[in-house]
Amino acid sequence: MKEKDLSELTDQELLDKKQKLKSGKIINAVLIGFLIGIAVYSSVKHGIGFFTIFPLIFVLILTTQWKKNDQSINRELESRNLK
Fold this sequence. Notes:
The chain crosses the membrane at residues 26-42, 48-66. This is FUSC family protein. This protein has helices at residues 11-46, 50-79. The protein is an all-alpha fold. The protein contains two helices and no strands. It has one domain (12-79). 80% of the residues lie in helices and 0% in strands.
């Protein structure tokens, strides 16, 4: 089933989605910290290699995807004068 577009959501659904995004920040921060820790450990122990670069690629993907979702929800909330 395809997820609804943000403009199709009701005000309450949009506010709930924003709340879920806030709680997901903690999970994302822990995951990003874990991946950066793997990259640092790998670079110290074995030098620059696959296990140094690979986790950093996931960090980049996670941060860009999270920012994109956060910005789109905030834009929709501002267009509806909610906050």
